[in-house]
Amino acid sequence: MSSEILEPTRRPKDSPFFQQKLPAWQPMFTAKKSAITFLVLGVIFLPLGAILIVTSNSVVEYIIDYTDCKDSTQNLTCSETVRPGSSCICTETVMVTSDIPGPVFMYYGLENFYQNHRRYGRSKSDSQLLGMRLPPDSLSSCDPYASFTNASSTYAILPCGAIANSIFNDTFTVRYMSSSGSASVDVPVTSQGIAWKSDVDRKFGTLTPDALINTVKPPNWPFPIEIRSPGAFKTDEELMVWMRVAALPNFRKLHRRFVHENQFRNGLPAGTYTININYTFPVTMFNGRKSLVIGNVSWLGGKNITLGLTCVITGTLHLLLGVAFLLVYLYAKKSLSTRLLVLFLFAGDRTPVRGNSEFAKTKGFISVPLDSMNLLC
């Protein structure tokens, strides 16, 4: 029986990658290079932050906190009288001192409302929102707002889930009166074009003809979906905006776009704006507050100086670090030059050299450590 020589089967390939011989490069962070890097970054971030802050400050905004607005029918605030299923009528007035260039938008803001709670954020049915008809037993993700059962039958809630049930349902009408005291007129607004295009195109569909069979409205809704928005869910962009949950407890959501036509074609002119509010969304039960925001946008978006301040602070820190490393570099350079001069003066005809210390001793030279010389680089 002849013996065969077997080649090793676990030996890696003879290549630079498998033999770990790939060329590599590692930067040497000396004081000089660090100072230059930090100074350059500081010079970049500081002007960038200033530009962002100026851009943010160019946005015109009027914020109206109407949590405690007065009930128009009694001497109480709406926050004291409104409970789920009830409403309150109140009025707020805004004095716009200068024209607001268009396009102008209307937002509502909520504080201390945790849409990002895991159970709340998952309480919906994506298939149902696409327009499909689903039986109540297939809506378990929407519990406890999946179905309604009476003595004889079980009905699916449409749309189901805690998100849809808690939709923001305050309504606003805006009237404008010019500074000349002319008759007030309604400011036209629209809810079309407020949702993300991806939501309109892909996440929400039109209800099929049989999708409304054996369904009921969510408990907190005053009307069923077919009355609220004919052609739902495709046309209910207000619902789409609400269903896109916010990441933080204090947030704003786009509510309406002002229609720029006639005297409002260039934006909102200066004058007095009266906002009639149908107050139906209670917030005191969770210690929240709500507000209405009227404003325009810049190329950067809405009014928010956070990004600009972050750039300014980052640029300032980089400049301070750059100056610190520059001082370290200059001090180290001066200190090394002084030491070399002293060594040269006290060594007579011996010359300070860079090299091997043993060689320097035999030749009468003074060996200078390479690490000290590198501080000059």
Automatic annotation (TrEMBL):
GO terms for cellular component: endoplasmic reticulum; Golgi apparatus; plasma membrane. Pfam families: CDC50. The chain crosses the membrane at residues 35-54, 307-332. It is a multi-pass membrane protein. Keywords: Membrane, Transmembrane, Transmembrane helix. It is found in: Membrane. It comes from the Eukaryota. Belongs to the CDC50/LEM3 family. This is Cell cycle control protein 50A.
